[in-house]
Design brief:
heterodimer, A: 195 residues, alpha/beta, 5 helices, 31% helix, globular, B: Beta-Lactamase, 5-stranded antiparallel β-sheet, 4 helices
């Protein structure tokens, strides 16, 4: 959960990007890293295999500026998307403040999206969280590809609770910051409520 | 015992007490660097030769390390492995868990030894554990007052939008 430090006047929050394998979680973080000013970001860490698949997590610390005299820092994490890394995925969700579900819009990945979203709910429950009560947004990624499922269909399957959702193309950066902003906003609103 | 799901809040008074304790531990164990990390990966405090260290990354990876070994422990029926030790050519890292939630990390070289570090950590852990207990009590009392004097109760949409401009 968030870490409020009155001594250094900082708020630290943890945001996790979740989704099926190769949906673009790491690409989201890489785009944020590349487009953020040097003084606002820390080093991006990727614990990946030799073929650049995420093995444990990617980590990107961001300093967004001040709010009511407190420096706001967001720690962005991705989980490994591949099904067999479930044990690692659970660990990354510890102490999460907000979740981004990155859906792969390609038709052939529809089942993988649904499976990953169910897996997210199960793993959160194991940590004592309920997805419905967490700051949560959905990103429909890869909208530039020709074989996309319509947003309406994705929405009806993945977003029955109508949380904030947005279309994106993480490789070109479209929708990436909009997604981050949406989840950060929900996290801060949660903090305001004393959550 | 600190709950793993509650928000961690640090106040000036406890921060100063923690700094005094880890600076004392740094001297008594002849260590290079000492830092404290929340199990979720947030850096709580650091002392020693930290100028050339990326403490944010260290904090995140330490928490990942503890989480991964905690997962291993559960698989073989252990609650957790409370001490981890990594030996390098020059520098070594000693990692231990305090009060179930906070991670104490000590980086040391040939000026110290594993035996000395372990000895000093044992005593310091009890004292640090006491401070974190106090912190939990204080947080509980404080959280009951949230809404009346929380600095975040008055966050506006504009405040949030300004962060992204």
């Amino acid at each position: 959960m968030s870490f409020i430090n009155y001594a250094s006047r900082e708020i630290n929050c943890k945001i996790v990007y979740y989704g099926p394998g190769l949906c673009g979680k790491t690409t989201n973080l890489q785009f944020i890293y590349n487009k953020t000013a040097q003084d606002a970001k820390g080093k991006m860490i990727s614990l990946a295999t030799e073929t650049e698949r995420t093995l444990f997590f990617d980590f990107l610390p961001l300093a967004l500026g001040e709010i009511r005299g407190f420096k706001t820092r967001f720690h962005l994490y991705t989980v490994p998307g591949q099904v067999f890394y479930d044990a690692s995925r659970k660990l990354i969700l510890k102490g999460v403040d907000g979740v981004v579900f990155v859906a792969d819009s390609q038709e052939e990945r529809l089942d993988a999206n649904i499976e990953s979203l169910e897996n997210l709910k199960d793993n959160l429950e194991e940590q004592g969280f309920q997805l419905e009560k967490l700051p949560f947004v959905i990103q429909y990624n890869k909208r530039d590809l020709p074989n996309c499922t319509s947003v309406e269909e994705l929405r009806s399957l993945l977003n029955p609770d109508q949380v904030p959702d947005m279309e994106a193309c993480a490789s070109s950066g479209e929708g990436v910051f909009e997604t981050l902003k949406a989840v950060a906003k929900l996290v801060l609103i949660d903090l305001k409520k004393g959550g | 015992m600190l709950g793993s799901q509650s928000s961690l809040v640090m106040y000036d008074e406890e921060y100063q007490r923690i700094m005094v304790l880890i600076q004392k531990l740094l001297r008594e164990s002849n260590a290079k660097v000492i830092f404290l990390v929340d199990k979720n990966g947030q850096l709580i405090a650091a002392t020693g030769e930290t100028e050339h260290l990326d403490t944010t990354s260290l904090a995140s990876l330490t928490a990942g390390n503890i989480a991964a070994t905690g997962g291993l422990a559960k698989l073989i029926g252990e609650k957790e492995f409370s001490i981890l030790f990594h030996e390098g050519e020059k520098d070594n890292i000693h990692i231990s868990i305090i009060g179930g939630r906070v991670i104490l990390v000590i980086i040391f070289d040939e000026r110290s030894s594993l035996g000395l570090v372990r000895l000093r950590v044992k005593k310091a852990s009890e004292e640090l554990g006491g401070v974190f207990e106090d912190l939990v009590q204080k947080t509980v009392i404080h959280s009951e007052k949230v809404g009346s004097d929380s600095p975040f109760a008055e966050i506006t949409d504009d405040d949030i939008d300004n962060l992204f401009n």
